From TrEMBL:
GO biological process: cell division
Chain residue ranges for the region called Disordered: 75-98
Protein name per the record: DASH complex subunit DAD1
Protein location: Chromosome, Centromere, Kinetochore; Cytoplasm, Cytoskeleton, Spindle; Nucleus
GO molecular function: microtubule plus-end binding
Gene Ontology annotations for the cellular component aspect, listed alphabetically: DASH complex; mitotic spindle; mitotic spindle pole body; spindle microtubule
Length: 98
């Protein structure tokens, strides 16, 4: 098969092949760039998810602690209560007024 000499103009086939090769190369470069951007975003999302896991564990521990502190205590063990909390009972005098 004879090779085209440098003086000859490239055929339509050669021109189209070169154009399509450039177009495909450009497409792959754009795809690679988009893929790299997507990977960075996914890494960021996974990093934030790990932060939320830590926070969720902390809140779970807090909720468990609150559940344990809300156990029912018999009224005799509660005492009179603390003023300002609504549990303080002021004892009234049982003597009759004159």
């Amino acid at each position: 098969m004879p090779e085209p000499s440098r003086n000859e103009t490239p055929s339509f086939f050669d021109l189209e092949r070169e154009r399509l090769t450039r177009e495909i190369t450009t497409g792959f470069e754009e795809l690679l760039s988009s893929n790299n951007s997507l990977n960075r975003v996914l890494q960021d999302v996974l990093g934030r998810a790990e932060e939320w896991d830590t926070l969720a564990t902390l809140w779970t521990s807090f909720a468990d602690l609150m559940k344990q502190s809300h156990t029912v205590v018999p009224e005799t063990e509660q005492g009179m209560g603390v003023p300002g909390t609504g549990g303080h009972i002021v004892a009234g005098s049982t003597s009759a007024k004159p």
